[in-house]
Amino acid sequence: MAKFIDEFRDSDTAKKMVNIINGYKGKPVNIMEVCGTHTMSVSRYGIRSILPPNIRLISGPGCPVCVTPTAFINTAIELSRFDNVIITTFGDIMRIPGSNSSLLQEKAEGRDIMIVYSPLDCIQISIDNPDKKVVFLSVGFETTTPAVALAITQAAEKGIKNFSVLSANKTMPEALKMLAADPDTKVDAFLYPGHVTAITGTKIYEQLAEKYNIPGVVSGFEPLDILYAVILCLRMLEKGEANIQNVYSRVVRNEGNPEALAKLYDVFEPCDAYWRGIGMIPGSGLKIKSNYSSYDAWKVFDLKPVDVKDPHGCICGHILKGTKIPSQCGLFGKACTPENPVGACMVSSEGTCAAYYKYENSTNNI
Questions:
Q1: How far apart are CA 143 and CA 245, in angstroms?
Q2: Cα dist from 266 to 160, 259, 282, 286, 310, whole Å
Q3: What are the beta bridge partners of residue 133?
Q4: Of 110, 157, 159, 160, whose CA–CA distance to 136 is shortest?
Q5: Do 105 and 80 touch, CB atoms closer than 8 A?
Q6: Which residues pair with 135 in a beta bridge?
Q7: Dihedral (C-alpha) 153, 84, 94, 179: value to the nearest 10 degrees?
Q8: What is the rounded distance in angstroms from the CA atom of residue 194 to the CA atom of residue 247?
Q9: Are 319 and 345 in contact (CB under 8 A)?
Q10: CATH class belonging to 70-171+256-300
């Protein structure tokens, strides 16, 4: 395994790729990575620091924790205060600030909140606690939603009645269209997310390339993956081509994972969704279909989210759209740190602010 990874971190090959990139003499370009794992890798390996001034890597809204709205967190906190309710969630969601609290704070005050590693863990928790209602907080893109769908169908097959899902799931295509059409963002090329594309396949990007004339490359997460993807983006931009290329074929098939997609859309259907810091994006969300409504926590508990404003001074919306960088935020590194996050971009380990905070002054690079 180490050898398999090390070959994508070879220093000599990286230097050759950097020389090719520095040979680019075209107009200034913005290449957006839309995956939080890409953002972390770019910062970790110091990739931005070795790019010439006419090539900018900007971060997009590819961190699911970062785009989870405050209203969802407030609702989850409210639900944790119900009698006989067990909240189950992934670890990062625990620290997202709500308006007046967080799930981590609620747990410290005695609420029954459990961190799980898979939504499928909730099946056994439901069986072990028949007198409790178990609710999974579902936040994520196409990568993780099939597992949530599988948990729901397994619960239905087993006749489990005390399990439900509070969903804030989202999909990438409509968000990417929004970014492509936004004159403030000025995206010239995309580095597409390997995780999401392993499920969706590459076809979802073809319409985007054709309509907006924006090329893109599906990339892995090692430094050579990213450098090679940048080179291919530059080559297409120089030629005036708007194609989609997949250089992560060791994981991503162009057709994606049809079985996972079938499972996802057996349980979920598209809906409008609110993205924290960005706003409502039509058709960018996923809601549980009516035939599985008994597993939809929004309906089971008759919950209605109340829209709230992001914290004063927080510019997560601009950061998620790539129009500003974390250091331009007056809260960054002061009132807002990983230990005391104000905005969602600082909460997740893959958030743009967290990546900048951890690696901005680091000498660790390729």
A1: 20
A2: 18, 11, 21, 12, 34
A3: 85
A4: 160
A5: no
A6: 87, 164
A7: 50
A8: 9
A9: yes
A10: alpha beta
The 3-state DSSP class for residue 350 equals coil
Name residue, tokens 């799980």. 116
Q: Please give the share of the chain, as a percent, with pLDDT higher than 90.
A: 75
Q: DSSP of 68-112, one letter per residue?
A: --HHHHHHHHHHHTSTTEEEEE-GGGGG---SS--HHHHHHTT--
Sequence spans of domains, the chain: 70-171+256-300
**Alpha-carbon distance 221 to 224, whole Å?**
8
Burial class (CB in 10 A: 0-12, 13-18, 19+), 159: exposed
Cβ pair 121, 95 in contact under 8 A: no
Tokens of 331: 């809260």
CA distance 332 to 328: 8
Query: Which amino acid type is present at position 70?
Result: T
DSSP 242-284: --EEE--TTT--TT--HHHHHHHHHHEEEEEEEETTTEEEEEE
Tens digit of each residue's pLDDT (9 = 90 or more) over 3-29:
556 667 778 999 999 999 999 989 999
Residue 313 tokens read as: 């001074």
Helix (H) or strand (E) segment spanning residue 286:
strand 279-288
Q: DSSP assignment of 166-219, as one string?
A: EE--B-SHHHHHHHHH-TTT---EEEEEHHHHHHH-SGGGHHHHHHH---EEEE
Please report the pLDDT score of residue 135 as a whole number: 98
Residue 5, pLDDT score: 63
